[in-house]
Amino acid sequence: MKKRDLVKRLRKIAKAGNTELTFVREGGNHEIWTIRGERIVIPRHREINEHTANGIIKKAQEVTKT
Q1: Residue 13 — very low, low, confident or very high, per pLDDT cuts 50/70/90?
Q2: Structural domain of residue 33, as residue ranges?
Q3: Angle between helices 50-65 and 3-16 (to 10 degrees)
Q4: Bridge partners of 47?
Q5: Mapping DSSP to helix (H, G, I), strand (E, B) and coil, where does residue 66 land?
Q6: How many domains are there within the chain?
Q7: In the predicted structure, residue 66 carries a pLDDT above the cut 90
Q8: Are 21 and 11 in contact (CB under 8 A)?
Q9: What is the DSSP string of 5-60?
Q10: Distance (Å, rounded) from C-alpha 65 to C-alpha 24?
Q11: Cβ contact 35:22 at 8 Å
């Protein structure tokens, strides 16, 4: 999955949960984003492994449900 598609999907998930995806900072290998104060770590690669992307999406969905 492309990183930009993952970020778009995370923004949709956050919006559906009446919150927003917020960029915090960039590291050498990862970017840190938050949803409702929960940290979401996204690798800084153009292509992100499907299993990794699914794990990130699952975490975002759990955060917005609470």
Answers
A1: very high
A2: 3-65
A3: 20
A4: 2
A5: coil
A6: 1
A7: no
A8: yes
A9: HHHHHHHHHHHHTT--EEEEEE-SSEEEEEETTEEEEEESSSB--HHHHHHHHHHH
A10: 22
A11: yes
**Distance (Å, rounded) from C-alpha 13 to C-alpha 36?**
12
Length of the chain: 66
pTM above 0.70, yes or no: yes
Return the residue matching tokens 């492309």. 2
- CATH number for position 43: 3.30.920
In terms of Cβ atoms closer than 10 Å to its own Cβ (0-12, 13-18, 19+), residue 9 is middle
Dihedral in degrees, nearest 10, Cα atoms 34, 38, 43, 44 = 20
How far apart (Å, rounded) are the C-alpha atoms in residues 22 and 42?
12
Mind listing the pLDDT tens digit for each residue in 32-59? 999 999 999 999 999 999 999 999 999 9
Tokens for 61? 């969905």
